[in-house]
Amino acid sequence: MNIVILILLAYLLGSIPSALWIGKLFYKIDIREHGSGNLGGTNTFRILGLKAGLIVSIMDILKGTAATLLPLLPFFTDTNIHPLILGVVAVIGHMYPIFAKFKGGKAVATSGGVLLAYHWPIFLLMLLSFFIVLKLTKMVSFTSMILGVIALVYTIAYNVFFEIDIPLLVVIVLLSSFILYRHRANIARIKAGTEPKVKWI
Asked: How far apart, in whole angstroms, are the C-alpha atoms of residue 6 and residue 11?
């Protein structure tokens, strides 16, 4: 029963539509009706500005972090479930949120939050890589997909040279696949040369 409760809580945490709620509460805007219509940090930056974009991105990161850390709560410390399972469930909740008609974000920030909770060095690597690749490409979507590749290379190297962590490797492959799948429309625009580019970096 505790495992079922944890999975449900992880999904509900991931389902919190940060961009939708911030837009409606403070800007009286349904962000789904503007820009790409995506409930993520990138569209929030584009439509609502820097402050709202940062808040939404941080909230989305923390959803993944909180879900992954759920087994540390006193009621669940004896529950035999790998924290990465809960992290993946939260990412699924972010992509298909029950609070927003199952149309959510693209999994990047919440995936980062999962890694922050479970293996913080890879989160820092992803954060640094994000700004470097974004500076070079000016495309958030392309940068997000490259981060999946970097995370995979890092995790393979970590397993080979430091410590074998097969669950982490499996989850990295899974999260990277989520990110690629959710960016399939962006991939088409990149090929066509019509993908929007950021100007603030």
From this structure: 9
